[in-house]
Amino acid sequence: MPHVLRRCLFWLGAITLALPHWAYAESAQSPAPVVGTSGHLLSMTVGLLLIIVLIFALAWLLRRFGQGGLFMQQKSIKIVAALALGTRERIVVVDVGGKQILLGVTAREINTLYVFDEPVIDAESLPASSEFSRKLMAVLNKKSGGGT
User: Fold this and answer.
1) How far, in Å, CA of 51 to CA of 61, rounded?
2) C-alpha–C-alpha distance, residues 148 and 146, integer Å
3) How far is CA 87 from CA 29, 90, 104, 112, in A?
4) Domain ranges of the chain
5) In this structure, what DSSP letter does residue 32 have?
6) In the chain, count of helices (H) and strands (E)?
7) pTM of this structure
8) 3-class secondary-structure state, position 13
9) Per-residue model confidence as pLDDT tens for the chain (148 residues)
10) Using the 8-state DSSP alphabet, how is residue 127 labeled?
11) How many CB atoms lie within 10 A of CB 8?
């Protein structure tokens, strides 16, 4: 974990632990607000906005320091094709640096079945979206077009 990310997480934890003490000190000095007032609604909205900003800031930090593997696309390793054989078994063709490898994937292990000398599937000519996503978009477009 990078040094900057560790420092940010430390300060985030310290502030999070200190917030209840600051709030208690303020409430001890002033009378408790009546629930349902505009002040209460404003403080709740500000708190919610702070939490949302915090979530986006942490997501940005993860992407910035390369920890967000789910958010970032790998350019050197691509899954070219996959075929489900059972509930947890599948065959996958993976492109690694221009070389394609046929892998057998189970719940417990991954085995190399065959390494192709030349690519058998052109990775660039594959559609960007799957059949499911195209059908889903068609259904959503029908619903939005039919409702107006």
Assistant:
1) 15
2) 6
3) 61, 8, 13, 20
4) 3-64, 77-147
5) P
6) 3, 4
7) 0.41
8) helix
9) 566 667 777 777 777 776 666 555 555 566 665 566 777 888 889 999 999 999 999 888 877 776 445 544 556 788 888 899 989 999 999 988 888 999 999 999 999 999 998 888 876 665 556 677 778 778 878 876 654 4
10) -
11) 15
